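Example with several molecule types.
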Amino acid sequence: MSSGGSDLDKAIAQLRACRPIPENQVREVCYKARELLIEEGNVVTVDAPVTICGDIHGQFHDLMELFRVGGDVPDTNYLFMGDFVDRGFYSLESFLLLLCLKVRYPDRITLIRGNHESRQITTVYGFYDECLRKYGSANVWRHCCEVFDYLALGALVIGASTTLTPTDGPPAPTNTTQLAPLDSEIEIETLNAANEIMYRYARDSSQASNSQQPSTQSPSASSPTIPTPSNIGPAGTSATSSSSGSPGTPGGAILCVHGGLSPLIDTIDKIRLLDRKQEVPHEGAMCDLLWSDPDEIDGWGLSPRGAGFLFGADIVKCFNYKNDLSLIARAHQLVMEGFKEMFESSIVTVWSAPNYCYRCGNVAAILELEEDGSNAGFVRRSNGERGAGAGGWILGSNVGPNTSNRHSSPGAGNGNGNGNANRLGALTDSVPQRRRDGPGRRYRVFEAAPQDSRGMPAKKPVADYFL
Amino acid sequence: MEANQNDELYPIAVLIDELKHDDVLLRLNAIHRLGTIALALGAERTREELIPFLDESVEDEDEVLTALSEELGNFVEYVGGPEYGHVLLSPLENLAAIEEPLVREKAVESLNKICEQLSQPQVEESFIPLVFRLSKADWFTSKISATGLYNAPYTRATPPSQESLRQHYGQLVHDDTPMVRRQAANNLAKFIKIMPATIVIEEMIPLFQHLAADDQDSVRLLTVDILIAIAEAVPKEQQSSRGVLLTALRSLFEDKSWRVRYMVADRFEKIAKAVDEEVVNRDLVPAFVKLLKDTEAEVRSAIAGQIPGFCALLERETLLHDVMPSIEELVSDQSQHVRAALGTQISGLAPILGKDETISHLLPMFLQMLKDEFPDVRLNIISKLELVNNVIGIELLSQSLLPAIVQLAEDKQWRVRLAIIEYVPLLASQLGVKFFDEKLSSLCMSWLGDTVFSIREASTQNLKKLTEVFGVEWANDAIVPKVMAMGQHPNYLYRMTTCFAVSTLAPALSLDVIEKSILPMMDKLVNDEIPNIRFNVAKSYAILIDTLKQLPEEGTVLALQKAGTPSQGCQKSHELITKSILPNLEKLQQDDDVDVRYFATTAAQGFTDAMQT
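Resulting structure tokens for the full complex:
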């Protein structure tokens, strides 16, 4: 696909200016996108570094703001977790831009399906009407819906570093006390567009560190008090003592899915077996992946949405443990702070539509996962699938033999007393001894694009407005 | 022959079929093809068959009628030229009475267009009677259309007809329904513009007075434009004797409806320019001050927008003593929108006030507004600082404002930071190297690591401009090491800044710097683990090749371009391309990542293409 062709580049430029492209060009792009997406598995494998984004919902100008804050395609790698369309006024431009970028730079951007990428939902929540209004016929909507059927259901990010490089910048005035020192192991960092660090949490090697929830801002959990090198040594640098010498060990994969888990899915391989090329069904595994929500309950519960399920901490931890995941990233639910970690940081909701529906007053966030430098052996193919070099990475396969070594209670987190043989070595290391450390997570929080960058006149009443 | 006839009939048959078709789209298409059909029919049959047919087809969707109204405006040529233009009036008269405003608007537009092409007898015999019929119609829709039809015939009518046109317009002004009065008010300003002063004074001022006293504020607010038109028409020396005008003006300023006051505020400069100086000083200055203190924020915002325009008309003394205090109060207005509006305008006062007064009056206001809690206010001030700079000079400006500017460079709103960045090269050029290194240098470098991608990108542009200002050697000492250090950053998004900086800086750098600092760093980055870095290296190489091709042993490409002396480069620069860049590009062309291969190939292509030509 490297011969992107100037037509496609022109289309991208036109869409970036928020002008729709002609119907025949839409047809062509959708056709190319389908050719590309059909080659992707139900679960796409993505290498870190990557920036994970949640719902967009047709808020085109806020998508542009996202790119301004997070970097442009192809310079920054992106993974969008669905719900590109509906609700906002520019579903068409937003989705087509992302799709054109996908066709032009298939290895730089990954799109997975959200519950709004469906014929039934888009006819009710705006995308269908928007296409009809902008083209006078439903053809474009039909083309887009065909692409929806080919979007992957989830993505697996591998090779993410367990620690972050601290970002330079002054702390936000309100949170100075919570910043972990720069020389400690940074697990979570939250940056706002004000060039300030809102929070920085060190990975705490002597106790369960994953319980901080930035939304609750509990300073005690952030424990910036143990920065001494002797303490971090084991938790961080390379876990050299036990397993392997490769630096920057990966802390397990991150599953990205729009909604959440399904009672019918206990391993990621089961997602791979689904027949996804269809309209989102009303029930079943595929529906659940796109519709479910985490909730503070035990086990499974009925979802008030009428589709998918609610699932509790035990379900998430069990699933992560079984599939060797360090984190599930999902979207689907509005969170006022832009992101929300739950269940001792085993699952996170990322929301990327600031001031949702132009009225909710929320901020948006994107989640950056850094590279750990150990993924050099993997080569991505243009179809998004892994080449032969990575054939061995099948998650189910390195689950079996070690269960006895793992903590039986996921709640115990990574509280390992010896603090030594704590981190997985290379991917081939088959003796994990505790729950995976979460990846280093940098959340960039941003606000809605200002009025005048929306191509609309600022809120200044013109005289004729009264007439 | 008969078949021939059928052929000729065919288009109209199709048209009539399609005009009667159930599908609106087909009917719409048929309307848009009217011109073609008319051409096929010929002028005579168009007049005798098509127009009467259209005359009867006003029962349709508004969308179709709008299209028909528009098409008919261009139909004069199809009915046989201007001498037959009047046949088009009848269908348009019907369309001008339709309920949907859009249809009427188009019909009025087309009628005016046709009127321009009619001869004087045609205007007298056909057009003016049509205007009168519409003006006297029972239903308000026709009357509304009529108000827009007076200008075109008026200039071409005989004096008696002109008089009766004015009389009829007067009736519209006195109409019972506010909808008609509104439109009459709306069009009166234009109507006045084509009349001589005496008639304006005798006949139009009473109409204006009637409208200005209307009990609907939506009518009254429209009289502001009429007032301006009258004031422009009446010679200034006669104005002050026209007491009625001044009374009307005063009552508009103090209207109880804020919407009327908003209109006055919005048009203040225009009003001031239309009236004579005495009125400005006696009446407008107090009114201006009063509007600055209006209870409605919308009004205050509007009048804030008129500050430079109006103040330019005033005498210095008046401005300083009567107006400035009230303007200064706006700095701490309750409404952020008012403060933002003031922010965009206040710099415009600097040229009017001159250096000394700017320092004593404006600078304190700037300082306060730069600290405003609402980012738009800060941004508006910053983006207009250049005007002030021209008046008081950068030195004073920087002395007094630099602390505030430095503070803004760390503003929470990244767009404010962006505005500051764009302003830095100008500051730098005026401040000189030493001052810059002391006060601003670290700031510029910190932007390279900003959390917002756009700021990092803009900061590289900024560095290029700084290099232009301070020269290559300074850049080599102050910028290049820091840029290169970013290439070691563990996060690929920040390493990328180095690539961006190399791409933007390249034309401003000398051969020596490129060889000793840039290319070695690129050698490292070309082996980066992250493909995004590698293809950005390829992109930077493309620009480096382009630069080196033109680079002589001394100097920079940018300097050459400015001097207008293109160069073919020197042997050493070509050697650098072939020895340090092309091998790396070849390697990148074999990369595992498709995007890296693409950008490397593009860069290499750029070189070979240039070699061939």
